[in-house]
Design a protein that fits this description.
Length: 345
């Protein structure tokens, strides 16, 4: 490729970054929406500083633009993130190009630092207040995917069902979802309304969702959004190398590894050397094989670029099996029992 004589070198460097950038593929979100979504979701939890930490304003702009330039169209946020500031940042970014993005946001905690019980939880009052406030902060008249942030342990299932159904009928939201709910409640709600999405923590260190949540999600055709795919940075290997991050900042505790974590990180380092990638890219590449949408967080543009390059990695069957074996969880009852008897039927 040739460039005009006299082209500014700084502009040339910027152009080459964009030219080399991996273009994300779209895949259908769940089995029943028909909605094409980018294979990586951008998590906006660090967009803002009202909680005393978060990404720099200039870095946020670079992160959002880089993500969009790479073909990203799916942003995950919540009213509680940076006490509403994260939604405001996203709202300013999508203004004028709202139609090009899928926005998922969540309620339950509210945007207040210490919300009153009447303003938080999963009941319809909190739900209605939450969606109206999120619409204003996001500068939009509809939300693509709306969900409670977690099971509050109090609100009856039918109350959640009726509230979400009313919001869909009103046109304020298009699709419903759940985050951090037990599998039996996911099944109960999905059997009553056309549930579309589920959010859960899932990574090589945290795979307990394999016991029930993954199965119920597939059964009901839900789009699976996996948060913390790098386990708070643990799966980048940075903590074992002496770096600090959200897992050890302010805790005063020295970093330690149990035997399972050590084995997983050692294997990640080995595979990273085999495929000429970083440890974090291999860990994220593994989650991309789970027919799901990993949510990647970024406080700096370099963090996002690191994640985007994970899309270029191809892990072999042998490499995936090695990681599967080391990270697998004990399934427990009744799964262990059924494994011994079902083949006899």
């Amino acid at each position: 490729m040739s460039f005009p004589i006299g082209l500014n070198l700084a502009l040339l460097d910027s152009f080459m970054v964009l030219f080399d950038l991996y273009r994300m593929k779209n895949k259908l979100f769940g089995s029943y929406t028909g909605l094409p979504a980018s294979e990586l979701v951008l998590g906006a939890a660090n967009f803002g500083s009202r909680r005393g930490y978060g990404a720099d304003e200039k870095d946020i702009e670079k992160i959002l633009n880089t993500y969009a330039d790479a073909g990203g169209n799916f942003i995950d946020v919540a009213d509680q993130y940076q006490l509403g500031e994260a939604e405001e940042v996203v709202g300013r970014f999508i203004e004028g190009q709202r139609h090009n993005f899928i926005i998922c946001t969540k309620y339950t905690r509210s945007a207040e630092k210490d919300p009153s019980p009447v303003n938080s939880g999963n009941h319809r009052k909190a739900m209605r207040q939450g969606v109206e406030a999120s619409l204003k902060r996001l500068k939009t008249d509809y939300i693509d995917i709306f969900m409670p942030h977690y099971d509050d342990g109090l609100t009856p299932i039918d109350e959640i069902v009726c509230g979400l159904e009313d919001l869909v009928k009103s046109g304020k939201i298009l699709y419903t979802g759940l985050a951090n709910f037990p599998a039996w409640k996911v099944a109960a709600i999905a059997s009553k309304i056309p549930l579309a999405a589920i959010q859960m923590e899932y990574n090589l260190i945290q795979r307990t969702a394999d016991r029930e949540l993954m199965g119920v999600s597939d059964h009901y055709g839900l789009g699976k959004m996996l948060y913390s795919p790098l386990a708070g940075g643990l799966l980048t290997g940075k903590y074992r190398n002496g770096a600090s991050g959200r897992l050890n900042t302010g805790s005063g505790n020295a970093y330690t590894e149990d035997n399972k974590t050590k084995a997983i990180l050692d294997e990640l380092e080995s595979i990273a050397a085999e495929v000429d990638a970083t440890v974090g890219q291999v860990a994220l590449g593994w989650t991309l094989t789970k027919n799901a949408f990993p949510i990647i967080g970024a406080r700096k543009p370099t963090h996002l670029n690191e994640s985007l390059h994970a899309l270029e990695i191809t892990l072999s069957v042998d490499q995936l099996q090695r990681l599967e074996a080391l990270s697998a969880v004990e399934m427990g009852y009744p799964h262990d029992l059924l494994q011994t008897v079902q083949h006899k039927i």
